[in-house]
Write a structure and sequence with these properties.
The protein is mainly α. The protein has a domain at 112-154. The chain has five helices and no strands. It has helices at 3-12, 16-19, 22-48, 50-107, 113-153. The chain is rod-shaped and about 125 Å long.
Length: 154
Amino acid sequence: MSDDKQNEKEERNPSPLKALSGASRDIRKYTHQIWLAGLGAFARAEEEGSGFFDALVEAGREVERHTKDKTESRVEEIKERVRHHTGETMDKMEKAFDDRLNKALSRLGLPNKREVEELEKRVHELTSALSKAEEDVSASSESETPKRRSRKKS
């Protein structure tokens, strides 16, 4: 078959590997190579006997153990990054929500928490000042009352 005919055939019926993009194609290709290597190893094991097969099994266990250790640490690392990122995102969302809520309350004429606290503080100050003024008036009226009595007696 000529190259032109081969190219036409591939354009009409693209291979599954060509239909995949970038990383997906690489993973598919790598997986296929692993499968072929496994088949080759199995064929060789049949030829050379069970000793070779046992050696391959042991080598496979070692690779699996090593890969599993790496994978578990990598998964934990990714989990931690996701937790950190989600925490930051939640903080940003809460702040945005609080800001919008405060603006809405302000538009409605309702005081926010800070304004209510300032008002409470001012009411407390005024109440204290009023109590002091009442005490001063009471004390001055008590001190003036005996003087008035003494004037009335004369």
